[in-house]
Amino acid sequence: MALYGKGMLMTFTETSVGVEEDFNEWYNREHIDERVWMPGFHRARRYVDCDGDALIKYFATYETDKVENLCNPAYMELLKDQSDWSKKVMATFHKFDRVTARITIDQSHGFAGACAFARFFPAPSVMEALRGYLESDLLPALVARPGMIGAVLAENDLDVVNEGRKAQGTVIPKNETPQWIVLLEGQTTEVTAAALRAGFAGGLADHGVAAEAIDTANHVLMFGNCR
Fold first, then answer.
1. N or C: which terminus of the chain carries fewer CB neighbours within 10 A?
2. Distance CA 108, CA 85 (A)
3. Using 50, 70 and 90 to split pLDDT, how confident is the model at 141?
4. Domain span holding position 131
5. Which residue intervals of the chain are DSSP H helices?
6. How many Å apart are CA 112 and CA 114, to the nearest integer?
7. What is the CATH number of the domain that holds 46?
8. pLDDT digit string (tens) for 100-117?
9. How many domains does the chain divide into?
10. What local confidence, expressed as pLDDT, does residue 1 receive?
Protein backbone atom coordinates (compact mmCIF):
# COMPACT_ATOMS: atom_id res chain seq x y z
CA MET A 1 0.00 0.00 0.00
CA ALA A 2 1.28 3.45 -0.90
CA LEU A 3 0.88 6.59 1.19
CA TYR A 4 -2.61 7.91 1.91
CA GLY A 5 -2.29 10.82 -0.50
CA LYS A 6 0.07 13.12 -2.37
CA GLY A 7 0.56 15.74 0.34
CA MET A 8 2.61 15.54 3.51
CA LEU A 9 3.21 17.84 6.44
CA MET A 10 6.46 17.13 8.29
CA THR A 11 7.42 18.70 11.60
CA PHE A 12 10.73 18.57 13.46
CA THR A 13 10.37 19.49 17.12
CA GLU A 14 12.36 19.59 20.33
CA THR A 15 11.40 20.79 23.78
CA SER A 16 13.08 20.99 27.18
CA VAL A 17 13.76 17.77 29.08
CA GLY A 18 11.75 18.99 32.07
CA VAL A 19 8.52 19.22 30.06
CA GLU A 20 9.08 16.31 27.68
CA GLU A 21 6.52 14.07 29.37
CA ASP A 22 3.76 16.66 28.91
CA PHE A 23 4.93 17.26 25.33
CA ASN A 24 4.61 13.55 24.50
CA GLU A 25 1.24 13.22 26.23
CA TRP A 26 -0.08 16.21 24.29
CA TYR A 27 1.18 14.78 21.01
CA ASN A 28 -0.29 11.33 21.64
CA ARG A 29 -3.59 12.33 23.27
CA GLU A 30 -4.58 15.53 21.46
CA HIS A 31 -2.43 16.79 18.64
CA ILE A 32 -2.19 13.74 16.35
CA ASP A 33 -5.90 12.94 16.71
CA GLU A 34 -6.88 16.56 16.12
CA ARG A 35 -4.89 16.72 12.91
CA VAL A 36 -6.02 13.34 11.56
CA TRP A 37 -9.63 14.55 11.54
CA MET A 38 -8.88 17.77 9.67
CA PRO A 39 -10.19 17.99 6.05
CA GLY A 40 -7.97 16.01 3.70
CA PHE A 41 -5.83 14.45 6.44
CA HIS A 42 -5.67 10.66 6.78
CA ARG A 43 -2.67 9.39 8.75
CA ALA A 44 -0.15 10.85 11.16
CA ARG A 45 2.92 9.24 12.68
CA ARG A 46 5.54 10.55 15.07
CA TYR A 47 9.07 9.35 15.65
CA VAL A 48 11.99 9.89 18.01
CA ASP A 49 15.70 9.98 17.17
CA CYS A 50 17.19 6.55 17.92
CA ASP A 51 20.89 7.35 17.48
CA GLY A 52 21.18 10.54 19.53
CA ASP A 53 22.68 12.56 16.69
CA ALA A 54 19.66 14.11 14.94
CA LEU A 55 19.67 17.90 14.70
CA ILE A 56 16.12 17.84 16.11
CA LYS A 57 14.98 14.96 18.33
CA TYR A 58 11.31 14.44 17.30
CA PHE A 59 9.94 14.06 13.79
CA ALA A 60 6.33 13.66 12.61
CA THR A 61 4.57 13.06 9.29
CA TYR A 62 0.95 13.86 8.37
CA GLU A 63 -0.41 12.41 5.12
CA THR A 64 -3.03 14.36 3.17
CA ASP A 65 -4.93 13.96 -0.08
CA LYS A 66 -2.86 16.74 -1.64
CA VAL A 67 -0.44 19.40 -0.51
CA GLU A 68 -3.11 22.09 -0.94
CA ASN A 69 -4.97 20.58 2.05
CA LEU A 70 -2.20 22.12 4.13
CA CYS A 71 -3.43 25.62 3.30
CA ASN A 72 -7.13 24.74 3.52
CA PRO A 73 -9.05 27.64 5.16
CA ALA A 74 -10.28 25.43 8.03
CA TYR A 75 -6.75 24.30 8.71
CA MET A 76 -5.45 27.86 8.56
CA GLU A 77 -8.07 28.90 11.12
CA LEU A 78 -6.96 26.09 13.43
CA LEU A 79 -3.35 27.32 13.21
CA LYS A 80 -4.54 30.74 14.35
CA ASP A 81 -6.56 29.42 17.31
CA GLN A 82 -4.88 26.49 19.04
CA SER A 83 -6.21 24.79 22.19
CA ASP A 84 -4.95 25.90 25.60
CA TRP A 85 -2.90 22.71 25.91
CA SER A 86 -1.41 23.30 22.46
CA LYS A 87 -0.47 26.87 23.32
CA LYS A 88 1.14 25.72 26.56
CA VAL A 89 3.20 22.97 24.94
CA MET A 90 4.15 24.93 21.82
CA ALA A 91 5.51 27.73 23.98
CA THR A 92 8.16 25.27 25.24
CA PHE A 93 9.56 24.41 21.79
CA HIS A 94 13.19 25.48 21.46
CA LYS A 95 13.67 23.81 18.08
CA PHE A 96 10.95 23.67 15.41
CA ASP A 97 10.84 23.25 11.65
CA ARG A 98 7.79 22.71 9.48
CA VAL A 99 7.73 21.40 5.90
CA THR A 100 4.65 21.19 3.66
CA ALA A 101 5.50 18.86 0.81
CA ARG A 102 4.21 17.43 -2.41
CA ILE A 103 4.93 13.70 -2.74
CA THR A 104 6.52 13.31 -6.16
CA ILE A 105 7.80 9.72 -5.79
CA ASP A 106 5.99 7.07 -3.76
CA GLN A 107 7.60 3.64 -3.64
CA SER A 108 6.20 2.67 -0.25
CA HIS A 109 4.59 -0.67 0.58
CA GLY A 110 2.75 -0.96 3.88
CA PHE A 111 4.39 0.55 6.95
CA ALA A 112 6.99 -0.37 9.54
CA GLY A 113 8.55 0.92 12.74
CA ALA A 114 11.71 2.65 11.55
CA CYS A 115 12.09 5.75 9.39
CA ALA A 116 15.26 7.49 8.25
CA PHE A 117 15.44 10.66 6.20
CA ALA A 118 17.82 12.69 4.07
CA ARG A 119 17.14 16.44 3.73
CA PHE A 120 18.84 18.63 1.12
CA PHE A 121 18.37 21.63 -1.17
CA PRO A 122 19.06 20.75 -4.82
CA ALA A 123 19.67 23.54 -7.30
CA PRO A 124 16.70 24.14 -9.62
CA SER A 125 18.90 23.30 -12.62
CA VAL A 126 19.44 19.69 -11.46
CA MET A 127 15.99 18.91 -10.07
CA GLU A 128 14.54 17.16 -13.12
CA ALA A 129 17.53 14.88 -13.64
CA LEU A 130 17.88 14.19 -9.92
CA ARG A 131 14.20 13.30 -9.60
CA GLY A 132 14.59 10.84 -12.47
CA TYR A 133 17.67 9.28 -10.88
CA LEU A 134 15.91 8.85 -7.54
CA GLU A 135 12.80 7.35 -9.13
CA SER A 136 14.50 4.97 -11.57
CA ASP A 137 17.76 4.05 -9.87
CA LEU A 138 18.55 4.98 -6.28
CA LEU A 139 15.22 4.51 -4.48
CA PRO A 140 14.34 1.16 -6.15
CA ALA A 141 17.81 -0.11 -5.17
CA LEU A 142 17.33 0.97 -1.56
CA VAL A 143 13.79 -0.46 -1.34
CA ALA A 144 15.10 -3.79 -2.66
CA ARG A 145 17.44 -4.18 0.32
CA PRO A 146 16.37 -6.88 2.84
CA GLY A 147 14.07 -5.47 5.51
CA MET A 148 13.23 -2.29 3.63
CA ILE A 149 9.55 -1.37 3.22
CA GLY A 150 9.59 1.70 1.02
CA ALA A 151 10.92 5.10 0.06
CA VAL A 152 9.33 8.40 -0.95
CA LEU A 153 10.47 11.79 -2.19
CA ALA A 154 8.75 14.81 -0.65
CA GLU A 155 9.36 18.23 -2.23
CA ASN A 156 8.65 21.30 -0.14
CA ASP A 157 5.90 23.46 -1.68
CA LEU A 158 6.84 27.02 -0.80
CA ASP A 159 3.47 28.52 -1.79
CA VAL A 160 1.72 26.30 0.77
CA VAL A 161 4.45 26.90 3.37
CA ASN A 162 3.98 30.64 3.06
CA GLU A 163 0.21 30.41 3.59
CA GLY A 164 0.94 28.73 6.92
CA ARG A 165 3.49 31.39 7.78
CA LYS A 166 0.95 34.11 7.05
CA ALA A 167 -1.60 32.41 9.32
CA GLN A 168 0.92 32.26 12.16
CA GLY A 169 2.30 35.75 11.58
CA THR A 170 5.76 34.45 10.65
CA VAL A 171 8.11 36.41 8.42
CA ILE A 172 8.41 34.94 4.89
CA PRO A 173 12.08 34.57 3.84
CA LYS A 174 13.23 35.95 0.51
CA ASN A 175 14.84 33.83 -2.23
CA GLU A 176 14.10 30.57 -0.43
CA THR A 177 15.08 27.32 -2.19
CA PRO A 178 12.69 24.34 -2.01
CA GLN A 179 13.83 21.55 0.26
CA TRP A 180 13.67 17.88 -0.69
CA ILE A 181 13.28 15.09 1.85
CA VAL A 182 13.74 11.41 1.08
CA LEU A 183 12.02 9.12 3.61
CA LEU A 184 13.24 5.54 3.98
CA GLU A 185 11.05 3.08 5.88
CA GLY A 186 12.16 -0.32 7.14
CA GLN A 187 11.60 -3.08 9.65
CA THR A 188 14.36 -1.99 12.05
CA THR A 189 16.49 1.08 12.66
CA GLU A 190 19.57 -0.95 11.68
CA VAL A 191 18.00 -1.60 8.27
CA THR A 192 17.10 2.04 7.67
CA ALA A 193 20.49 3.27 8.91
CA ALA A 194 22.26 0.96 6.45
CA ALA A 195 20.04 2.12 3.58
CA LEU A 196 20.66 5.74 4.51
CA ARG A 197 24.43 5.22 4.43
CA ALA A 198 24.27 3.32 1.14
CA GLY A 199 22.19 6.02 -0.56
CA PHE A 200 23.44 9.30 0.85
CA ALA A 201 26.70 9.01 2.80
CA GLY A 202 28.67 9.95 -0.30
CA GLY A 203 26.27 12.70 -1.32
CA LEU A 204 24.68 12.98 -4.76
CA ALA A 205 27.82 14.12 -6.51
CA ASP A 206 26.55 13.71 -10.07
CA HIS A 207 23.70 16.08 -9.22
CA GLY A 208 25.61 18.76 -7.33
CA VAL A 209 24.56 17.79 -3.80
CA ALA A 210 27.59 17.27 -1.55
CA ALA A 211 27.51 14.85 1.38
CA GLU A 212 28.00 17.68 3.87
CA ALA A 213 24.93 19.45 2.44
CA ILE A 214 22.65 16.51 3.33
CA ASP A 215 21.09 16.33 6.80
CA THR A 216 20.40 12.71 7.75
CA ALA A 217 18.76 11.12 10.77
CA ASN A 218 17.34 7.77 11.84
CA HIS A 219 14.14 7.50 13.88
CA VAL A 220 11.88 4.92 15.50
CA LEU A 221 8.07 5.07 15.59
CA MET A 222 6.46 6.30 18.83
CA PHE A 223 2.77 6.69 17.94
CA GLY A 224 0.42 6.99 14.99
CA ASN A 225 -3.25 7.20 14.08
CA CYS A 226 -5.31 7.20 10.90
CA ARG A 227 -8.83 7.31 9.52
1. N
2. 34
3. very high
4. 7-226
5. 20-26, 32-36, 73-80, 84-90, 127-133, 139-143, 158-168, 189-200
6. 6
7. 3.30.70.100
8. 999 999 999 999 999 999
9. 1
10. 64
